[in-house]
Write a structure and sequence with these properties.
Layout lengths: L6 E6 L2 E12 L2 E8 L7 H12 L5 H15 L1 E4 L2 E2 L2 E7 L2 E7 L9
Antiparallel strand pairs: 1-2, 1-4, 2-3, 3-7, 4-5, 6-7
Length: 111
């Protein structure tokens, strides 16, 4: 897919959260080695909460997961080597990150 070897960057309020060195592209997902930056400590628990909710299977957890994902979207930005992307779904666990992205905003009215 041509993305392998690229470095994608995650920021929060202009501070580096980390970098993702892409080593696997399985459309629509990209994944790679995550190297935390100085801003990661401020959002680490948010990413941990998102993954914990994604793995649950009880009533109401998806609504909470959507709220956490929205908070991630408000607090961090994702940039490709070509610049910021307007929409993404990003997971970070340890030294791995995987995400999908769009160069167009997601349609919130699709439901």
């Amino acid at each position: 897919m041509g993305c392998e070897g690229e470095v994608w960057r995650v920021h929060s309020s202009g501070e580096p959260v980390g970098e993702i060195l892409i080593d696997d592209a399985d459309f629509p997902w990209l994944s790679g080695r995550f190297t935390a930056g100085p801003g990661f400590a401020a959002v680490r628990d948010l990413f941990a909460r998102e993954l914990a909710l994604a793995e649950r299977d009880d009533e109401g957890h998806w609504e909470e997961w959507e709220r956490v994902c929205a908070e991630i979207g408000r607090r961090v930005s994702l940039s490709s080597p070509d610049g910021p992307v307007p929409e993404f779904l990003l997971h970070i666990q340890g030294d791995r990150a995987w995400f999908r992205w769009s160069d167009e905003p997601f349609d919130d009215d699709a439901n």
